[in-house]
Design goal:
single chain; 379 residues; alpha+beta; FAD/NAD(P)-binding domain; eight-stranded mixed β-sheet; five-stranded antiparallel β-sheet; globular; disordered C terminus
Length: 379
């Protein structure tokens, strides 16, 4: 049967993927996004929890974002005007939770997460930390709402095979059986997942880019969400960087302003501790974390009502690619397939801002790449 061929297909509906889609739409190109999960956002993640019919929320992925570049500053300024985001708190580089976390005690890389060209750790440059008003995933939802109906996000669509059709365009087959076709593809999943997809598809990368991509590594993190039966004693700003060998960050969603009716804490564990306890049962993980932080959040004045655990295998890139995206163009460097672009927060620097800028760069690269769109192709 005949199937419309898109200009660009994006895999992953996190910040990088949606940012790329908006950049492509701005250029008048047809674009759609495939997302394997039931919701959008990626690590811009917000979860709903409840206690005795009272609903609360917790950001269990990225906790905030900062602005350093003119491009992202302009985006955040407009988002603030729209009421999507607002300032949370300001501090120097020592306060660096999830997505910008401090290193392990005694480890190297004290400036881990610092953007290229910014003030190194130890200097007293102050950055405003922003939050998304209804939770971090809400910001991505607002961005997706800016896409035209002809440029949708498809949920529950996990790509399991890419096929280069005569070297002219891509065919993407999903676990669901759905098939999509496009002149160009942007991969925004964590790099190990993108490389695994290419391996399953029997697509070999040229030696140089393959080597660069294989160098990219990530830290893991366990996010523990805790519902309490009363108010926590965290500072009014709603966050704490505890002196702990287990926990790197505690946030109170009620004081943060996204869970007014229910006290929900988000606790992020340190990478090395997360790795050691990765396969531990949820109950054991919660018990260890609660024992570690109980005195810090309320002592005997509050009780733990319920909990949830989420494991981020690719929480934060440790080794990154120097450019904002990596574009493989047909006929260049031994690449014989259609245009394929890698993007995400592992490109050009981490953080939410890095993901946004990487998406913009990927969208621009895809928009200027060689490729033409036919009205239909045979499938």
């Amino acid at each position: 049967m005949a199937k419309q061929q898109l200009d660009v297909l994006i895999i992953g509906a996190g910040m990088a993927g949606v940012s790329a889609a908006l950049k492509l739409q701005e250029q008048g190109l047809s674009v759609q996004i495939l997302e394997k999960s039931k919701g959008i956002g990626g690590r811009m993640a917000t979860r709903r929890l409840d206690s005795m019919g009272i609903e609360g929320k917790a950001d269990h992925g990225a906790q905030f974002f900062t602005t350093r570049s003119p491009e992202f500053s302009a985006f955040v300024k407009e988002a603030e005007t729209q009421g999507w985001v607002k300032p949370w708190f300001s501090s120097g580089p020592e306060a660096r939770p999830s997505g910008e976390r401090r290193p392990e005690p005694g480890s190297e890389g004290a400036a881990a997460g610092a953007a290229p060209g910014t003030t190194p750790a130890g200097a007293q440059e102050v950055h405003t930390r922003y939050l998304a008003v209804d939770g971090m995933s809400a910001l991505i939802k607002h961005m997706v709402a800016e896409l035209k109906p002809t440029n949708p996000v498809h949920l529950h669509q996990k790509a399991n095979r890419l096929t280069s059709v005569s070297g002219k365009h891509w065919r993407v087959t999903c676990d669901s059986g759905m098939v999509y076709e496009a002149s160009r593809i942007i991969l925004t999943s964590p790099v190990p997942q993108s490389l695994e997809l290419l391996q399953k598809s029997a697509i070999t990368l040229p030696t140089t880019p393959a080597g660069e991509l294989e160098k990219i590594t990530y830290e893991c993190c366990i996010a523990v969400m805790l519902v309490l039966d009363g108010h926590s004693k965290l500072p009014e700003e709603g966050y704490l960087r505890p002196d702990s060998k287990k926990v790197t960050w505690i946030a109170d969603s009620q004081k943060k302003g996204i869970s007014p009716a229910l006290t929900v804490l988000t606790v992020h564990t340190l990478p090395k501790w997360s790795q050691r306890h990765w396969t531990s049962p949820d109950h054991d993980t919660v018990q260890q974390v609660w024992t570690d932080i109980q005195d810090k959040v309320g002592g005997g004045q509050v009780n733990l009502v319920s909990s949830q655990v989420h494991r981020w295998q690719y929480s934060q890139p440790r080794e990154t690619f120097p450019e904002r995206c990596l574009a493989l163009q047909p006929g260049e460097g031994g690449w014989t397939h259609p245009t394929l672009i890698f993007a995400g927060d592992a490109f050009g620097g981490p953080r939410v801002e890095g993901a946004y800028l990487s998406g913009q760069a990927a969208g621009l690269a895809a928009g200027t790449a060689n490729g033409s769109t036919a009205d239909s192709v045979a499938t």
